[in-house]
Specification:
Layout (H helix, E strand, L loop, with lengths): L1 H11 L1 H22 L12 H26 L4 H21 L6 H25 L1 H6 L1 H26 L5 H22 L2 H4 L7 H6 L4 H32 L3 H25 L5 H21 L3 H16 L1 H12 L5 H29 L3 H27 L1
Length: 396
């Protein structure tokens, strides 16, 4: 009963509205993987280099966002950053709608840089806005943020599926541009007064200083490679299924939606099971499931095998984030918004650099490499999780 009351207070507070903002963050970041078949990149394998450039452009915008975000945070309120970032994402999507193919790819790259910039500013503002919620229940707050993020990714994919045959690419992206516009209106009207008065803002130098500990570095590396694994699949799954398995674009997008759905449901189940299941057993079974799913997806030649592989990969990846969220809540109870945003931003860079690299590799080695990289990355995540547990025991 106490947990239910705490959840109700959280959902009606500024922290609850801020957590819902992670839905927009996921929506914006998942857009590219879902829109590539709409832009026709499944028809031309040499264009895989352009796809890699798109993900790299998003990464460049995200990497450049801290300089702008911290400068604005020193002069403005968190609510201003939320509205500003939403409007920036809205403008970037509207621009991308206007430069859909057959316009030159360089024009879309410029729009994706701005979109990454807006997403990065949004993430920093959200992490500052949830500071009160995090101080009350760190693990619960981080888990709920991850669930909202996954819902946003699923929503972006479902929107593309629902409009694939009904509208042209320009109109689909314009519809997507409405979503950050709606969030901008919500944040402009409601604001987040409770989050903004909770604690003084940290400086960029203080945020960097939080990464001096070995534990923080290991957590950042873990999320860097885990997001790289997740987004390698999410960014390239439709193109892989169309080119290698022979599925139709709409069927491939449906499997992408199932991937996000399996991730969300798996994270909910994993978060509920953490107190009942040994963490080592949960991690081991998740890694085995993800590895087997990657192998199955690589060798399959039909829709059933592809769906089974996606189920195993999504379910296997699902438990990693709840395990990390609980560990972060226990290891870093003195919440610093800049610190956690730094970890998340580094993770998102991994999530974008991995599919960008795959674009260049797929142009030379074939689209099958899309599954090979997450296969190796999953093994690396296992090593990092074990290293974090070992470091935590030695630090006691």
């Amino acid at each position: 009963m106490r947990n239910l009351l705490a959840g109700a207070r959280l959902s009606t507070s500024g922290g609850g509205r801020a957590l819902a903002g992670f839905l927009l963050s996921g929506f914006v970041m998942a857009l590219l993987g879902a829109i590539l078949p709409v832009w026709g990149y499944h028809r031309d394998p040499p264009a895989f280099v352009a796809v890699g450039n798109y993900f790299l452009s998003l990464a460049v915008g995200l990497a450049a966002s801290p300089a702008l975000a911290w400068r604005l945070l020193g002069q403005r309120r968190v609510s201003f950053l939320l509205v500003f970032s939403c409007l920036l994402c809205c403008a970037a999507l509207a621009y991308l709608a206007l430069v859909s193919p057959p316009a030159p790819a360089w024009w879309r790259m410029a729009g994706l840089v701005v979109l990454g910039l807006g997403a990065g500013v949004l993430n920093l503002a959200l992490f500052h806005a949830i500071s009160n919620s995090y101080s009350r229940d760190a693990a619960r707050t981080v888990n709920r943020g991850g669930i909202w993020y996954g819902v946003g990714c699923l929503a972006a994919t479902l929107l593309v599926i629902g409009t694939f045959y009904a509208y042209a690419a320009t109109n689909i992206v314009l519809l997507m541009a409405l979503v950050p516009g709606i969030f901008a209106g919500v944040y402009a009207r409601s604001g987040l007064p409770s989050a903004e008065t909770s604690a003084p803002h940290a400086t960029f130098r203080q945020a960097l200083g939080d990464f001096r500990s070995v534990g923080a570095v290991l957590f950042a590396l873990l999320l860097f490679f885990q997001f790289g694994n997740e987004w390698s699949i999410a960014g390239w799954l439709p193109l892989f299924l169309i080119r290698r398995v022979g599925l139709s674009p709409i069927a491939a997008l449906c499997l992408l939606a199932l991937y996000w759905l399996f991730l969300i449901i798996g994270r909910l189940i994993a978060a509920a099971a953490l107190s009942r299941v040994h963490h080592g057993w949960l991690l081991g079974s998740s890694v085995v499931a993800a590895l087997f799913g990657c192998i199955l997806l690589f060798f399959t030649n039909n829709g059933f095998g592809a769906a089974s592989g996606v189920l195993l990969i999504g379910s296997g990846y699902a438990s990693v984030y709840p395990l990390v969220a609980e560990a972060i809540g226990g290891r870093f109870p003195d919440y610093h918004p800049g610190f956690f945003n730094g970890i998340f931003s580094l993770a998102m860079l991994g999530g974008l650099l991995a599919p960008a690299t795959l674009g260049y590799a797929a142009a030379t080695l074939g689209v099958g490499v899309v599954v090979g990289v997450p296969l190796l990355g999953t093994c690396l995540v296992l090593v990092l999780v074990l290293s974090i547990w070992l470091e935590a025991r030695l630090a006691v």
